[in-house]
Specification:
single chain; 758 residues; alpha/beta; Dna Ligase, domain 1; D-amino Acid Aminotransferase, Chain A, domain 1; Glucose Oxidase, domain 1; 4 domains; eight-stranded parallel β-barrel; seven-stranded mixed barrel; 29 strands; elongated
């Protein structure tokens, strides 16, 4: 890797390898191999005390061995070369790598030990023996037993590599795919201050970044970023026995991202080069030198979880019940699990753990492996998506929630809980054992339809997972969901921060940590939109501009200051009427800037725009004019702008609307209520509200005919075809071009639509 990738522009610290043959030679020279065989003879990995005693005995045996003089001479020879290159007091990392560690179907990185800040010949030789002995850590023995590897046929090599002074800067882990969904078109980067062990061991909640691969060469597609708390920094010490220690990070630096944009993009490009070199998704460790300010790649191994999953299979976990949410955190595993809580404070308490329980702890490390494989789920206070608990849970196929901050306090021993990691980046711990369904679909066996099948998406964090659905794009991406979950602040509150109450100011300052207040809306809206557009690239993604009603806008922080009280918000100041109103122009400009960034800075030109609640032709022209003024001109660089067809006037004047818009997307929910004069939220009128009413169907059919006649786009993104198969049949027979469905109804409805087309 070193010589070939250096030529491609990557920075890699020099070093040398002590081969697995050296390990075999050491054991045979000292006849330790026979002694190890004898110690393993009566091993019972299900008995933790037996496992620990056996492991300890073998490790002590290896540590007591004398390295053969000829081998010692060779090790010191190459260490001398490093000292000549980097200076007499050259510090090195001594990294272990077992011959089983990075196989395509078996990773479990972290089985063996790594030793940092090693200086001097004596300390190097001691570290090497420690590395050799770590082949027999308890977790490594247990793991090999489960994988049916012969302990004595596995050897260990050592990489001795110049240390990167990341204790003075930052370091982290990078995957060339999304670690949760397996989505291949992103590079996922974790970053924290100091040496990288803190991330892997889950001591910190790191910063996270997603970079979109397909447009990386020409654009700057950092499509998502999240600020971690990064409370600890692992640094060097002057003491040989304890060469590293954790120190606290100031609030100032906790609230700053540990990488800048140029560094994020550089790492992503390097990740792509490494992936191309090995022709497979990779798990990569990187470090930034605080002295030279340069980035370095320090380790790379194949990604082993998603690389081996059959992509034709699509799994849906659906929770059938809800209860009180006890704890939330970052979800890992996209599954649901249930069981009895067992809170364990440290590894000494693992004897108390029983099969099928939910492990709740501060964090895990590789020493926890013997019980992780029998857990129904894992919940930790600390850690990010690349910490030890997360890595192991993916390989074991169990749900895991990390970085909860307070799970060990909130979850009580012996209580029954449900762990839900099925709905995106946020994982939920619910009280009680809840019912859920697991549905498995073989995508390859699904039929192809003439009618385009698209999907409705609200939460950006679900986009990567949903991208594996057999759809031809997104028919409705809802901006208000992004505003509600990503932003949570009224846009005018960010523009008029000084006018807010002290209470609202404090809330906003907490939410916007790591961002400039006035930039926050644009930054987060762009990221939310980009995540959806990237997930389905190059398929079209139709983004509906903000369609909050005044009562909904009032729920956002600061919203009550800028929103009027309306008697009937459903028919009030919403949709298009806002965008050219002087009270909202500033907010709409930020909306446009976010969309513009997604298209022009990230290169996601598959994004298309839909304008909601366009009441009149004049209003449509006003909105198109406002969009053009803000860099979103219809037709420029292929940009499509559609009108949401949701009020009778859109259809009555269809020919006029279609002169200025590129087509219609039917919103059956609002169209039904405005046609039948029924408030869709009024339970007393629920017996009247029905999308299948002849009047509603007549209007929809007229809209379809008008668009098809003009060769304009016509689709539907409302609820009705997801709920009623007869309505979906009506749409197909009416020759609608596309039907956008809720995710949970895509596959079942697709199968029916194929039958309707015959």
């Amino acid at each position: 890797m070193y010589s070939k990738l250096k030529r491609k522009g990557l920075n890699i610290p020099n070093g040398f390898a002590i081969t697995s043959n050296a390990y075999i030679y050491l054991l045979k020279y000292s006849k330790a191999d026979k002694k190890i065989k004898a110690l393993l003879k009566n091993l019972d990995t299900s008995n933790l005390k037996s496992l620990q005693q056996t492991g300890k005995s073998i490790r002590e045996l290896i540590l007591s061995l004398e390295i053969p003089k000829d081998l010692e001479k060779q090790i010191l020879k190459y260490y001398k070369k490093l000292r000549q290159e980097y200076g007499k007091n050259c510090d090195v990392a001594v990294r272990s790598s077992a011959t089983s560690e990075d196989l395509p179907d078996a990773s479990f990185a972290g089985q063996q030990e790594t030793y940092l800040n090693i200086r001097g010949e004596k300390e190097l030789l001691i570290a090497c023996k420690k590395c050799f002995s770590s082949l027999f850590t308890d977790r490594a023995i247990s793991y090999r037993h489960d994988k049916k590897f012969d302990h004595l046929k596995i050897a260990l090599s050592i990489g001795v590599q110049k240390m990167v002074r990341s204790d003075l800067a930052s370091s982290g882990v990078m995957f060339t795919l999304d670690t949760e969904s397996g989505f291949r078109n992103v590079v996922f980067i974790n970053s924290s201050y100091g040496l990288g062990e803190n991330i892997v061991k889950g001591y910190v909640n790191p910063d996270t970044f997603y970079v979109f691969k397909p447009t990386l060469n020409k654009f700057k597609p950092i499509i998502s970023r999240s600020l971690g708390n990064k409370k600890k920094r692992l640094v060097y010490t002057k003491y040989k026995k304890h060469p590293t220690k954790n120190v606290s990070v100031s609030k100032k630096y906790q609230n700053k991202f540990s990488l800048n944009d140029d560094e994020i993009l550089t790492l992503a490009r390097w990740g792509c080069i490494i992936e191309q070199h090995y022709n497979k998704p990779m798990d990569i460790e990187w470090a930034k030198d605080g002295i030279t300010k340069k980035l370095f790649i320090v380790q790379a191994r194949p990604e082993t979880v998603h690389s081996n999953i059959k992509k034709n299979l699509y799994y849906e976990y659906e929770l059938k019940e809800k209860s009180k949410v006890l704890v939330t955190g970052r979800s890992v595993g996209q599954k649901i699990g249930t069981g009895e809580v067992n809170v364990i404070s440290n590894v000494k308490g693992i004897y108390k753990f029983k099969k099928g329980q939910v492990l709740v702890t501060e964090m895990t490390d590789p020493d926890w492996e013997p019980i992780l494989k029998i857990a129904s789920a894992i919940v930790t206070n600390r850690g990010g998506s690349t910490c030890h608990a997360a890595i192991v849970s993916r390989e074991l196929g169990i749900p895991c929630i990390v970085g909860t901050e307070n799970a060990t306090k909130k979850l009580k021993n012996k209580s029954k809980v449900t762990i839900d990691c099925s709905k995106g980046e946020t994982g939920y711990v619910y009280s009680g054992v809840l019912k859920y369904d697991l549905i498995k679909h073989d995508i390859k066996k699904l039929p192809k339809t003439r009618t385009k099948i698209m999907v409705n998406i609200g939460e950006p964090e679900e986009a990567f997972r949903l991208s594996f659905l057999p759809v031809q794009g997104v028919g409705l991406a809802r901006e208000e969901f992004i505003a509600g979950s990503y932003i949570r602040i009224h846009p005018n509150a960010l523009l008029n921060f000084n006018k807010l109450s002290s209470k609202d100011k404090r809330k906003i300052l907490e939410i916007t940590k790591g961002y400039k207040i006035k930039d926050f809306f644009v930054d987060k809206m762009a990221e939310g939109i980009a995540k959806i557009a990237a997930a389905f690239y190059p398929k079209p993604v139709i983004l509906r501009l903000s369609d909050f009603k005044t009562n909904e806008y009032r729920t956002l922080i600061g919203g009550s200051l800028f929103e009027p009280n309306e008697d009937n918000p459903m028919m009030g100041w919403r949709g298009a009427s806002r965008y050219y109103d002087k009270r909202f122009i500033g907010a709409f400009k930020m909306e446009c800037l976010a969309i513009k960034r997604v298209i022009k800075e990230y290169g996601l030109k598959n994004l298309q725009i839909m304008v909601p609640m366009v009441r009149t032709i004049k209003e449509g022209k006003n909105v198109l004019n406002m969009l053009g003024k803000n860099g979103l001109k219809k037709g420029k660089n292929g940009l499509k702008i559609y009108a949401m067809c949701e009020i009778p006037s859109n259809i009555i004047l269809a020919d006029e609307f279609l002169k200025i818009f590129d087509g219609f997307s039917i919103g059956s929910n609002d169209l039904t209520q405005f046609t039948l004069a029924t408030d869709r939220d009024n339970s007393m009128l629920s017996h009247v509200y029905d999308e299948r009413n002849p009047a509603v169907k007549k209007l929809i059919m007229d809209a379809i005919k008008a668009c098809n006649k003009r060769h304009k786009y016509i689709g539907i993104c409302g609820q009705a075809p997801s709920d009623y198969l007869d309505f979906a049949k009506f749409l197909v027979k009416s020759k609608i071009q596309s039907i956008s469905l809720n995710p949970d109804s895509v596959i079942s409805t697709l199968i029916k639509i194929k039958k309707f087309e015959r």
